[in-house]
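Feature request, filed as a ticket because there's no other form

It would be nice if the structure record came with a short human-readable summary line next to the tokens. Right now we just get the raw output. Example of a typical job, pasted below so the devs can see what we mean:
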Amino acid sequence: MTIAVSGGGCRPHVLSHVHGISRLHAASVGDALVDRHLVVEEGGAYRCIHPVIAHTVRDGLTASRRTEVHRALALALELVLGNEGSPGVAGELARHADRGGERELAYRYARLAAEGAVARYAYTEALSWLDLAASSARTPEQARAVDQLTADVLESAGWSEPPRSSAAPPITREIVSEDLDLRVRR
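Raw output as currently delivered:
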């Protein structure tokens, strides 16, 4: 269940923290799932062998349980990360925190993920992380900080809003009968 909810896969140390078992036991359980051809182990992480398997497992969970698994994954990832805060893991942590109802974690790590995306010149990705941070902001100061970061990202990307002209044609107009495709017979 944890591997299916994680999406990108879980390392044994994350599984260990989520389930309160040793790393060795977590690796043993992961290997047993590999033997049953339900998951694969790549680069030290276990992930579902096929998206249909992950989808089926996730759909079998109640909304409450899925939320708690996301929350547990977010907390375990934060514990495992320590102060590293790598941008790739920050995004994963922000996503799990958001889905697990941990708004403060989602806010903090979404901002870290946005900073990592800006460093890679992935401005659209950065804006999506900032959207998550904005929806997770709890105070007006946090909201203002995200607004400022969003403006900075838009400026870095070279986006600027053209000035509005008062002589611009209206965006909407009145609908007339010629606009309608269907004719009513009487």
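Something like this underneath would help us a lot:
DSSP finds nine helices and two strands in the chain.
The longest strand covers residues 39-42.
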